[in-house]
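fyi for ur records
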Amino acid sequence: MSYEPVAGTPQIERRILRRPEVEAKVGLKRAQIYTLMREDKFPKAIRLGVRAVGWDSIEIDQWILDRLKVRV
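which gave:
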């Protein structure tokens, strides 16, 4: 999953989202997120430290958009 900005679209702020924010944004709990990551069906976490991970906000937004496209 990669994000390429389209000419003429506003710039989207890229930031690192921590797990509680990802859970709230996608509507999934921790176990579901990690299961989907193992199955390569959810963006991989980025290691931030020894015991800290986060997700790229643009990858999460793209994942949500992909789910909405499947719905149609």
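Residues 16-71 form one domain. thats all i got for now
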